[in-house]
Amino acid sequence: MNKRYSKKEMKQILRQELEISVHTEQKIQDAYNQIRQRSGYQVSGKVRHGHFSRYAAVAVVMGLLGVSSVTALAISGFFEKTVEEKGDTLSYEFQVNYELTPTVVTMEAGYIPEGYEQVEEFKYDKEGYRQNGISLAVATADYLDVYQDSLNVDLVKNLEKTTINGAEAHLITIDYDQERVTRCFDKRIYLFHPEEGFVGIVYGGNDISMDELEKVAEGITYTKTEEPLAFLSEEEKAAKEESVRQAQENEQTILETGVPAEYVFQIGDTINPVLDYAEAYLALWKDTVPFGEEYKAKLQETKGIEITVKDVEILDSAKDLPKENFFDYDRVSGALNEDGSLKPYRRITLRTLENGEQEEVSREEAQRKFLKVTLEAVNLEDKTTEYWAGEAQLTYLMEREDGEFDYEERWFEPLNDQEDNIEGDVGSPIYFDRSPYAGQMDPQFFYRDLEPGETLEYSLVFVVDEDRTDDLYLRFGTAYGEMDVENQIFHSRYVKLSR
Fold first, then answer.
1. Beta strand extents in 293-367 (DSSP E only)
2. pLDDT (tens digit, 9 = 90+) per residue, 363-422?
3. Does residue 11 contact residue 351 with C-beta atoms inside 8 Å?
């Protein structure tokens, strides 16, 4: 999860339909290396692991095609498609036949180039990064009906239309910003099977040629099963559209609300986000039990964990920080000078425009420092409680004239996230000196149990740009999201770190 909470991030949190750029896709793939998340997509209720989310199609690229518009109707079957080529954009629209019932389609790879190993179902890799290679997917007619733009591609470099195993095939090459991405999926092949009710999708990375990827496509065997799938009803589609509209409204409300001053604290203040959360909902529900008596009783028994930020220190070097307390020291060590200081890196600055589009502001070299935060956590519960120290996220707020706070309008990240990202998620801690998994890159690294009444003093280390040490805040409450807009309950708590 990204927890930077700029305006851009608030949009991402609530947006339910989202196109993922090659750069964003690489962040998802990179998370494999941190054992933090698995990426996959769901089609027709079946999970098909690949690098393509059900809410997105990977697209990333530059280059131009001549402006043209071509309409092509597929033969009668489960769907007909309209294809439009305009500039460097390729888009598809599907008209489906609701009289037919689509079924689950399975696939089996035949040819996989030498050197590629299967790292999960329908995903093949040879470099170990899981950021390129080969991914296979199937989109059935019911999926295409709902996610009409899921096959669209922006900034197309080259399109070749051909036939593979009797199926119409589109071979698409995508350009990409080579300053920003080292490894990516810059190729794809669509195999259209309108009579059978599906589109086969073959993704290829920049480590494989289109000729080899075409051989992969030729070797795939698709099998229609008897397991039926269902199209969404008009009512279900309307409900989905309404949920998207509501999410957009909520997003705007959160941006306009900003962070109320009552939820911003200072170093030395004690907060208890879990207890605050429980009390807020108990006050809202009063005598009602929308989630059942058992859940209400659990909230009534909640005492929470008190958290206090004790001290903050900027460190020039990591030489005095034990290596075993880093979540991934190998990642960090590659960015260090011999004296333990961080090397300069290339940074990109972006901002979100009023229409929601992202705009690049600048690219520049920046110097990073380590930020060490000392905290204390006290378990007030009468039972052993799992504590997530990694919930604390470094972020930035801007104080308004009325004393309230806005989310930062610009955000900053490594120009090449694959090469220069040492945080994983921007704003996440990279070091925890009381981890029970010290020396291990374990997904539970930032978790530990607290006994009843136990007080734990610990340190987290973050990375911060040298020119961005003002307006620094530590955010807690990430497990609950930023705000319950409908009930006007603000979940997060912020501690100001800048003195």
1. 305-315, 345-352, 358-366
2. 999 999 999 999 999 999 999 999 999 999 999 999 999 999 998 888 899 999 999 999
3. no
Q: Which residues on neighbouring strands pair with residue 125, listed in sequence order? A: 117
CA separation, residue 398 to residues 48, 227, 235, 314 (Å): 42, 54, 42, 21
Neighbours of 440 (CB within 10 A): 12
Residue 280 parent element (H or E):
helix 273-285
Torsion sign over Cα 327, 329, 334, 338: positive
3-class DSSP assignment, residue 205: strand
Cα distances (Å, whole numbers) of residue 9 to 67, 204, 418, 420, 434: 34, 29, 20, 20, 30
Q: What is this structure's pTM?
A: 0.76
pLDDT tens, position by position, 410-451: 889 999 999 999 987 889 999 999 999 999 999 999 999 999
Cross-strand partners of 414: 347
How far is the C-alpha of 180 from the C-alpha of 62, rounded, in Å? 12
Residue range 453-468, pLDDT digits in tens = 999 999 999 999 999 9
CB atoms within 10 A of CB 263: 20
